[in-house]
Automatic annotation (TrEMBL):
<dbReference type="InterPro" id="IPR002347">
    <property type="entry name" value="SDR_fam"/>
</dbReference>
<dbReference type="GO" id="GO:0005829">
    <property type="term" value="C:cytosol"/>
</dbReference>
<dbReference type="GO" id="GO:0009688">
    <property type="term" value="P:abscisic acid biosynthetic process"/>
</dbReference>
<dbReference type="GO" id="GO:0010301">
    <property type="term" value="F:xanthoxin dehydrogenase (NAD+) activity"/>
</dbReference>
<protein>
    <submittedName>
        <fullName>Zerumbone synthase</fullName>
    </submittedName>
</protein>
<dbReference type="InterPro" id="IPR020904">
    <property type="entry name" value="Sc_DH/Rdtase_CS"/>
</dbReference>
<comment type="similarity">
    <text>Belongs to the short-chain dehydrogenases/reductases (SDR) family.</text>
</comment>
<dbReference type="Pfam" id="PF13561">
    <property type="entry name" value="adh_short_C2"/>
</dbReference>
<dbReference type="InterPro" id="IPR036291">
    <property type="entry name" value="NAD(P)-bd_dom_sf"/>
</dbReference>
Length: 281
């Protein structure tokens, strides 16, 4: 992952002049998206609860007036509202809203042993957080008659057996909300889409249901190895930068007529066979 900005005159900056607010932007796919958006000319506000990582990213980017960080818990409406207001006050507007914050929840195969508090916790972040991000981005975008809202979903939004019960349900909800809001906000010129990578994308922080000390390279490779054999596309290992590239496409004018889409990055995992084996992580 590059730490420096690309300034070559032959490099096409696809987000030149645009402003993005990215939740969960201090690590993993969120960090990759922040860096890629800045490389493509966007001004970015990072909203996250990981303050120290946020400051480290700002220092590593050394992007002057291009990037800001604000503490934000996506489960709290006041935090989301303040993050939106802060972005507008700092950069003048919001063209792109990326709802990237998520948690996976614990794997509890037996529904009889599933704690409702665990279920609610996952929904608070994965669904309520997306709802609040969409709601407050819309109040800025609707008067302008344009904008792009992108949320993180997952291949678990299309099939079962690749995540916890709560995670799978939450990602189905994100896709449903994306389609529902695309119809409403489309009347105001606002595009609403989501991106669905596999359950585990190789980053330094996945899978999120593990404790920090357990998130080592071998574990992450193991998760990826569990997904890859079932994908049709061979010879390609999905990385966080690939998810960021999908975000970039949906944020850019190249996708100006794309809305209501769940862009699945599954290497054929969800579409080439009806005999998908259950993956018990």
């Amino acid at each position: 992952m590059a730490d420096t900005l690309v300034t070559s005159s032959v490099f096409k900056r696809r987000l030149e002049g645009k402003v993005a607010l990215i939740t969960g932007g201090t690590s993993g796919t969120g960090e990759a998206t922040v860096r890629l958006f800045i490389n493509h000319g966007a001004k970015v506000c990072i909203a996250d609860i990981q303050d120290k990582l946020g400051e480290q990213i700002l220092q590593s980017l050394d992007s002057g007036t291009h990037t800001r960080f604000i503490h934000c818990d996506v489960t709290k409406e006041d935090d989301i509202s303040k993050a939106v207001d802060f972005t507008v006050e700092t950069f003048g507007t919001i063209d792109i809203m990326v709802n990237n914050t998520e948690i996976t929840g614990n794997i509890v195969p037996d529904i009889r042993e599933f704690d409702i508090r665990e279920f609610k916790k996952v929904f608070e972040v994965n669904v309520n957080g997306v709802f609040l991000g969409m709601k407050h981005a819309a109040r800025v975008m609707i008067p302008r008659g344009k904008g792009s809202i992108i949320s993180i979903a997952n291949v678990a939004s299309t099939i079962g057996g690749v995540g916890s019960h709560s995670y799978t349900c939450s990602k189905h909800a994100v896709v449903g909300f994306t389609k529902s809001l695309a119809e409403i906000l489309g009347r105001h010129g606002i595009r609403v889409n989501c991106v669905s990578p596999p359950y585990a994308v190789p980053t330094g922080v996945t899978p999120l249901h593990l404790q920090p000390g357990e998130r080592n390279g071998d574990v992450v490779k193991g998760f990826s190895a569990a997904v890859e054999p079932h994908a049709n596309l061979k010879g390609v290992d999905l990385e966080s930068d690939d998810v960021a590239e999908a975000m970039l496409f949906l944020a850019s004018d190249e996708a100006r007529f794309v809305s209501g889409l769940n862009l699945v990055l599954g290497g054929g995992f969800t579409g080439v066979s009806s005999q998908q084996p259950t993956i018990a992580f």
